[in-house]
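Running this now, will post back.
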Amino acid sequence: MAVMIAIYESVESAAGILKRRIMSTVEDVPEVVLDSIKRVFGEALTPEAAVARLLADVRARGDDALREWTERIDGVTTQALEVPKSAWAEAYDGLSPELRGAMERAAERIHDFHARQPIPNWTSDDMGGTLGQRLVPLERVGVYVPGGTAPLPSSLLMAAVPARVAGVDEVIVCTPADKQTGQPSSLILAAAQVAGVDRLFVLGGALAVAAMAFGTPSVPRVDKVVGAGGLFTTVAKRQVYGFVGLDGIYGPTETVVVADDSADPRWVAADLLAQAEHDVLATAILMTPSRVLAEAVRAEVARQAARLTRRDTIEISLAGQGGIVLTPDLATAVAEADAFAPEHLCLSVADVGRWAPQIRNAGGIFLGEHSFEVLGDYVAGPSHIMPTGGSARFKGPVNVLDFVKVINLIGLTAETASALAVDADRIARAESLTAHAAAARWRIVGGDEIA
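Update: finished.
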């Protein structure tokens, strides 16, 4: 049976796919996930409760908890949580020369792109003294890299390389072991070698987040956790915020393609399929005013999907969250795509220069059919770790500024301090903070006596 993608006759009829599903209650969580929780914990728990139990145990018992829960969850027994650099080098040497070269060139472009991003330190002496801001690299960052059926060495590069550009002192990586081999993916080990990270640990999901957030005898505590993962990784990131900084909270990946009748239906279909193969919860949507294009893309999706290895995943993804939405005109398609605020927004239109400036909400805008999303996934240069679930309304992709913090500099002259203290005193008394007011009045010239 051919893989199908639905055509919706209007934006209104596509409301089901344009309104994201958020797994917030037990009823929303897939049955297979709840079954796995019951198997591991011996009782029915929500993902939030299960993760809270893992975090508490790791915080209390450290490495012992990491080893025991890794064996219970993944069936993997390990004594050494850290993978030595010699194993990275061996994995790197085991790559074909062509793949090694591709990863090196990807890392170079990621580095070069982020090296162009300004990190402005500034000071000013025209406000009654010295005021300014200093941007300081974080000391230690933890990168989570998913494993599973499709290990993502590209995700390691997309997080670790910008961290290095920012000047982070130490970059550590956590990634799960393959359940069959009991070892981390050799591709991820090779990527660690390419990116020049400092340490790598065999830990997955919530356990990895807990170890990096709290620290254990083996895994150092980090200042910030970066990277996407599955449901349990995401829940864990929510629960450790405050103990550690986060780059963001990520849900399933998503792409919206806006296309007119100039687009090549073969290319559009290929781009939708590339997105859908990520995950059964991935979103791949085409918005177009062209019925001719819509029909052609639907036919191409069926034809191309037949020969793809992850066809089952694609079929579920397209049936659940995918679709082709017909709009009355291109302006409506652009406006609806912007309102959706997707992780990836691909403009497969003849006049990119007209429509791109109208987009305010997207993790990345892909300008024309030659700037297709797969290039962004691997080698274009910008990080592919982008906001999902509509968070592009208020957040951007991972970038150099994620790995620095701002320190304000305040160095006022005595004269300025005395003048400003008058207003500080007034505001403090209005807030009923009398000690604040007194500290200000002591600095007012001629104000030695505190009223």
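The chain has four domains: 7-20+252-386, 26-74, 85-248, 413-441. More later if anyone needs it.
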